[in-house]
Structures
1.
Amino acid sequence: AQAILSQAARYPTGRSSWHPHSFSPSLMAAVDIKVELNPKDDVALRDDKSEKSTRRGWGLTCRRRAARDVEECEPAGYSSLVLQGRSIAASKDQALYQSMAWWSRAESFGGARVFVLAPRGPDGNLEYNVHMQKLLAYVVSQMHEHVVEQAKPYAVVWLQLGDHRISLLSSLIFSRSLHSSFSKNLEAAHVVHPSWGLRFMRLAIWPFAGEELWERFHSHERLQFLEPYMSVATLALPKDIFQYDEFLDKDAERMLDEAAGSSAPPEA
């Protein structure tokens, strides 16, 4: 508004001495202008949708443009990703992928529906070679209706089981192929049993990342640390996930005992 008034002050105070076309294009683009002129003034007005002009009384009012809604964006390749995932869901491998990715009965305490991702082989085989590109395509196809079509909030629990199974480059390429609704409607991502790679990544970005990232990106060493955010019992986790959690506890106890034994003074 101050910029407009300063430009208007450069002209004489006569009623028809200036009009909205006198303003610079950059200024006109920054604000919406409403100009009211006396009916007796002979001022030519353009028929331009970017300007709102009437011929009633003398006056000048300015208002900022209303903030635009975030435009939903569907990158090239997203549709093919969904179709690939749906073809997997209709194939003989459906049961395998259902055991690695599913909508749980849980809702976060913030009201977001929770999706679980647990890449591993049949019977909890951690050595199984998971095709992550196919798995992520399946994940997108399962989440599409809730996240994109219904535009509802969601949270993700990613059970890494000590292995993230995807390179940084591949994860960046995948993220760029996602519909913008996945970012817009994400409440939080919770990584459980994080890999060492993820631990180092979080440590590396800690000095630079803002609070918004840490509010939406959590890492938990054990399942019990999910409890402040959601009920673990409603995640419908298979038995092998809990067994892995117990294995980590026992392994941690063993290492503590070994460390205590090595630090004990030798007997006389």
2.
Amino acid sequence: MALPDNASCTLPGEEPPFPEIIELNVGGQVYITRYATVTSVPDSLLWEMFNRKNIKTLARDTKGRFFVDRDGFLFRYILDYMRDQQLVLPDHFPERSRLQREAEYFNLPELVKLLTPKISKQNSIGDDACQSDPEESSPNADTARNIASLGAIACASITQGPGSESRRAGFITIGYRGSYTLGRDSQTDAKFRRVARIMVCGKTSLAKEVFGDTLNESRDPDRPPERYTSRYYLKFTFLEQAFDKLADSGFHMVACNSTGTCAFAHDQTDDKIWTSYTEYVFYRE
């Protein structure tokens, strides 16, 4: 007769210490899953947590959920892996090394292997030469192996060029608010106001690469390079200057949009104030 999933930690006639549905609070992010999922990988951290006989030893939040003090956003990939032992990540996933660290913490060695960067065979000596007689490898063979590795690294650096690492693909959005006054029946010339502030949205590292010292970071000073922000703005107010800097860095415009509202400037006149917000989206391959 098949036993229930959580019968391994109970004796006949005893109530199971853990419910079938488990609620987890991981770094402030709430996850709801099955007991069989969190205990699917033997000897993992979650397996050890939920095979304890004394449920009171586990930390809980104010609502009674089991609490784990780790990265709540990356835990979704940990939980996905524990469901079917397969790793599925989004395209161009930028936090692979951080996810590998989380996998090490949760004691998931197979997931760690899947996340470990693979070394291309072109950057190493053939496997047959290394496996023929490993116990009798001479110092000369080790020296040749080291020289070959250094040569491969040097060739890769020459091929990539000095600025290839900083020329990463990505999007940057430029936004600004503008307004102008229009007279009765559009007979008078529009009175334009200058742009007060040009805002920058995108990955922090890309924004700093493109705009450098002209980027005002005072509204979001401690944003890590791999994170995104919408609180930066430029120290100048000329859109063409921003476009020139983006073009010099290899970006090109792929989209733009604008919205506008209208209101009367004064009760005693028919002058109208038009206020608009415009965004320009740039992309670099």
3.
Amino acid sequence: MYYLLLFCFYLFVSLCFFFFFKQKTAYEMLRSLVGSEMCIRDRSTQSTGTPHRAMVKARQFVVSPIDEKMRQVSARVVVDIAKPGVSLLHPESEKKIQFFPFTHIQSWLSSKQAFGLQVLDAKQEVQTLWFRTKESENIISALKGCVDEILADRKKSATSKRIAEGIIGGYLDKGAGERSNQLRQIVAEATSDDDVETQRTAIWKLSLLTGVSDVCKEEIITAGHLEATLVLVRSQDPKLQCHLAGMIANCAQLDQLRLPICELGAVRPLITLAQSGVSE
């Protein structure tokens, strides 16, 4: 009887020990399998290249949304960080799922396994979107870099605005003869110098002045300045081409100048430029 009771007690302790550690091991295995399954999916999608095709581009990261509504759209999304804001794209079709301009992004959060983006929704309420990823630090670094670029662009734009106001004000304060001399000097800089930066700056000045002065528009045509600068249409610099197109468009605002512009052959280069798909 004593041995029977001892055997039952031993059996009971063994079963408790077995089930306790068995459940714990199963739980740990489940966590490991989930992590392994995600790693396997990551490797398989990277090998095929289809969902991760966009990661070739800078500032794009493939993540897994935690939000159930977004997961119904796609289990994986591409976080595309660009100057206007942050876009969430479908990894295969690259179709835009959501877009958040930087003016609507309040802050970002991170951990080793997740990344959070706090944004303003349509009701101007703060919403936090969480994504599973191991690239939180890289994503935040990309966000900070993009914000720095935006601030630098704004500073550069403000500087350009001050320079433009100075050029326009200086031109308008001059007399007729001095204005004509200034235009001839600017056209000479645009056509006689082979430096692209000098040419671009000169044509930019002409586009500014023709935008504010009808007298300047007329003199550009009657003094032969448009014909002289049309050779720059062949330039490979997209900004120079766009400044030149802006100058011609400004001159064409006056009805009496449209026919002379057509006779000088300035329309066809503009059509060619429009069809070339120049981004700037």
